[in-house]
C-alpha cells in the first residue's frame, strides 16, 4: 500500500461535503503513482470511481496532463508547413454511428493538412469499434510501427497513429479498471486533450456534456495552449453531426476571446440522418471503399461535411462552402484513394 497515495485518495473520496480538490501537482502525482503501479489495485479503483463522482477540476486535469506529457510517448517534430491536427476520439469507441475521422484524416492529408491520431483496442465501458480497427479496414495497420516509423509516415504522408498498447503500456495497464468500475474514469477526458506530438499542432477534442468542454478548455489554457477546437460531436467524437446543429468551440489565440460556432447542416445542403454503424467490419470496409470511389451514398456526404469543415479550419479553404467543394473534388478525382495507396506502400517498406 502507498501511504502517500492514500492521502490523495482521502481528499477526493471523503464524500460530497468533505472532499477536497487536488492541486495540479497532487493530481499529477496521483496519476503517476497509478501509472507506475505504486498505488495498489484497491487504491487505484477507489480513486478512479471517487474522482469520477467528485468530478475533476480543470486544475486537476491539467496536472494529469502534466504526467501524461512526462511519461507518455512523443512523436518527434516533423518539418511541416502546417500544424499537425490531432483528431481526438473517445478510446472506448463507437457503437451507434459510423466513425468518420479516418476517412476525414485521409482527405485532410491529401490536401496538405497533416493528421495524428491515437487510441487502443476495444475498451470498456462501451467496447465500441476503435479507430485502429477502422484503419485496418482501409488496409493500414498502425499497431506494428515504432514511434520512429510512425514519425516517418507522418513526414511522408501527413498521417500517423500512436497505438496505446505498444507505445504507452503504462496507460494500457489502467484499462482493466474501466471494466471493473463500470464507468469511464477521468482519464477518459484526459485522453481527449493528450497530444503525443512535439511539434506545432492543433488539438480537436470531442465532447458530449458542456461541463466536459469547460474542463477541456480551461485545462488547455492552464497548459498555455491557446489554439484548439472543441466539437459536440457524434458519441463524443470530433465528427460533426448531420441531423442537428454542430456546436463548436474555437480558441484561436490569446488576443481573441473564446468563440462559439453553430453550423446548421441544412444551410449547406448537408442535413440528413447520421450514418449508423453497420456492426461488422466487412460491411464497413465496403462502405469506406465506396466513399473513396466517390459513390453517391450517405457516408460520402458525411465525410464531405466533416472534411470540408476541417479543411476550412486548417487553412486550405477560405470558407466552409469552399471546403466542402474541395473535399468533394479530392474524393471525386481519386486523389484521396491515391494518397491511401501511397500510405499503404510506405507502410510495406518500413
TrEMBL record:
Glycosyltransferase is among the record's keywords: yes
GO molecular function annotation: anthranilate phosphoribosyltransferase activity
Gene3D superfamilies (UniProt xref): Nucleoside phosphorylase/phosphoribosyltransferase catalytic domain, Transferase, Pyrimidine Nucleoside Phosphorylase, Chain C
Biological process according to GO: L-tryptophan biosynthetic process
Superkingdom of origin: Bacteria
Keywords linked to the UniProt accession: Amino-acid biosynthesis, Aromatic amino acid biosynthesis, Glycosyltransferase, Transferase
Start and end residues of each Glycosyl transferase family domain: 95-335
Matches recorded under InterPro entries: Anthranilate_Pribosyl_Tfrase, Glycosyl_Trfase_fam3, Glycosyl_Trfase_fam3_N_dom, Glycosyl_Trfase_fam3_N_dom_sf, Nuc_phospho_transferase
UniProt cross-references to SUPFAM superfamilies, sorted A to Z: Nucleoside phosphorylase/phosphoribosyltransferase catalytic domain (SSF52418), Nucleoside phosphorylase/phosphoribosyltransferase N-terminal domain (SSF47648)
Glycosyl transferase family 3 N-terminal domain sequence ranges: 6-69
Gene Ontology cellular-component terms listed: cytosol
Name of the featured protein: Anthranilate phosphoribosyltransferase family protein
Source organism per UniProt: Thermosynechococcus sichuanensis E542
